[in-house]
Design goal:
Two copies of one chain form a homodimer. The first copy, chain A, is of the alpha/beta class. Chain A is about 40% helix and about 25% strand. Chain A has helices at about 30-35, 55-60, 125-135, 150-155, 155-165, 170-180, 185-195, 235-250, 255-270, 275-280, 285-300, and strands at about 5, 10-15, 20-25, 40-50, 65-70, 80-85, 90-95, 115-120, 140-145, 165-170, 200, 210, 215-220. In chain A, the strands form two sheets. Chain A has a nine-stranded mixed beta sheet with strand order 5-4-1-8-9-10-11-12-13, with helices on both faces. A four-stranded mixed beta sheet of chain A has the order 3-2-6-7. In chain A, a hairpin with a 2-residue loop joins strand 2 (about 10-15) and strand 3 (about 20-25). In chain A, helix 8 (about 235-250) packs antiparallel against helix 9 (about 255-270). The radius of gyration of chain A is 18 Å and the shape is globular. The model of chain A has no long low-confidence stretch (mean pLDDT about 90). The interface of A and B includes residues 300 and 303 of A.
Chain lengths: ~300, ~300
């Protein structure tokens, strides 16, 4: 029941009203892997440059994270520079350098090709199709994260990937752009017609909503007094979600709810420090304690 | 343990992308009373003009709603005209006529002056102080709804009312304007320093958050496919919240959580039809069924 995450690894320069950090390890699969590995082993596929060295490798070391699918190329890893305003809700991209990721096509190691859970990060839909085509058998569960730019740019390829996917993970804005609807239940109907049986919509500081044929599950975010850096919150959510699901070996609605909650909790850790730092240092004990606190917080007895 | 609601009764012209309605009964206390009366008797104080006739009285008739405090004045009731865009998130006010409510000062009937639960609608803080001063003894529980215009306009009177209030009910935008903070936990600290022990922040389509010294309780909104008219959703929430609290005769944290959930459910009914129509026709059976469905939706077993 292996979990494979395909996407970007990058170096980020991040500025928030509370500080700045240069050269932080980032990219969707870094966050997904460092979040999911607390629950289940993860195989990672992507590309890095020569600047990805022992310092970065150490971050993944000693965890059930398989980096054999992380290609090394001459040149620099992709870089992103962004800043957040006071509301911390959306980053302004100041600079983006694809570097080695430009024209890179992931080739999956043999050991990766039978993964049961496949996460496709914000790649071009054409790349995503190519990855799906490399699998020996169709994974039981394909989750994909989308991005507004792909939604607008390559509708046709997107349609073909969606037909392969069991689940679509998007944020509120992407969901609306994809379906041309505002209401989430109406969006879900349209997404189901495109392929995915499950839709998870991340609502940022308002939590997440899981839409499944069996019903709707909505969860608020874990309330935090100090949000430090929202970068990677959605990927940390995705990692917690998929890691939990893979470890439970089930995609029943109770497992999906539990996975949503796990995603919420992992996202809450991710935003407490710069980059992936919180995900690196958080312990199983911290995670369990926050899960219990959150469960108490949202539960009403005697109804 | 009586519940007294002081605020506006008006006639509304409402336009949404799904239709329009003229002369709908509106105003904060109409929604609060028609929502709260499903759980507990309500005393209403406000003012109406000669256009408030048998047709409007019939809406309140046969329910535990006391209209003795609803003053009748020569002239027209206050009127509001607003429209909503596709997202249904915020109304654009097209016209507002205070009419008889201009320079009106509520005088509470003797029977109202010992209420244990007092709801102060979006009145000017000076009016709110005047109402509090008419009570024989300080109510056990004063809830107040605020409005961005008062927050900006009359800081000093607002401070004096807040010192009297046990709870403050606001929407997200008002909370931020009041405290000059974005983060809800930080806002709560500032609100506590102003007086209220409890803060309830309504998050529109994202539900509500209850902040109490015992902890934080967040609830998503009840997911609806068809939101028809958001007018009065917040007042319906307030009515459900206070009606539930008054009926439980408790302000312990479990009662507060239950009240928040009741508010969420009443708001979900309110938006399904124009004006107060849904609140008029909803039955105890409908409310119980939706409460149970929502409880199932948000509960995760075995954590």
């Amino acid at each position: 029941m292996s979990l494979l995450a395909v996407g970007s690894v990058s170096f980020d320069d991040i500025e928030t009203p509370f500080g700045r950090q240069e050269n932080a390890l980032g990219g969707s699969v870094s966050y997904v892997a460092l979040s999911a590995c607390h629950f289940h082993p993860v195989q990672v596929a992507g590309v890095v440059g020569e600047d990805f060295g022992p310092q970065q490798e150490r971050i993944f070391e000693g965890r059930p994270i398989d980096l054999r699918g992380l290609a090394r190329r001459p040149g620099k890893s992709s870089r992103w520079k962004g800043s957040y305003g006071y509301e911390l809700s959306e980053a302004t991209t100041l600079d983006r350098q694809p570097n080695v990721s430009l024209d890179f096509h992931p080739v999956l190691p043999e050991a990766y090709r039978s993964a049961s859970y496949l996460y496709l990060g914000k790649l071009d839909p054409v790349e995503q199709l190519d990855v799906v085509g490399q699998m020996i058998q169709r994974p039981r569960w394909i989750a994909r994260e989308t991005a507004a730019c792909w939604i607008e740019g390559s509708r046709e390829a997107l349609g073909r990937v969606l037909r392969e996917a069991d689940m679509l993970l998007v944020d509120e804005r992407e969901a609306r752009a994809l379906a041309g609807e505002h209401n989430l239940l109406k969006i879900y109907r349209k997404v189901q017609a495109m392929g995915p049986r499950i839709l998870v919509v991340k609502l940022g500081e308002h939590g997440a909503m899981l839409l499944a044929p069996e019903g709707v599950f909505a969860s608020p975010a874990y309330p935090l007094e100090d949000v430090f850096d929202p970068t990677g919150a959605e990927d940390a959510f995705a990692g917690g979600f998929l890691g939990c699901l893979a470890s439970r070996k089930s995609t029943e609605v109770e497992a999906l709810k539990h996975a949503t909650l796990t995603g919420i909790i992992m996202a809450s850790f991710a935003v407490e420090r710069f980059g992936t730092q919180s995900l690196e240092f958080v312990t199983e004990h911290d995670i369990k304690r926050r899960m219990r606190a959150f469960s108490d917080m949202t539960r009403i007895d005697g109804l």
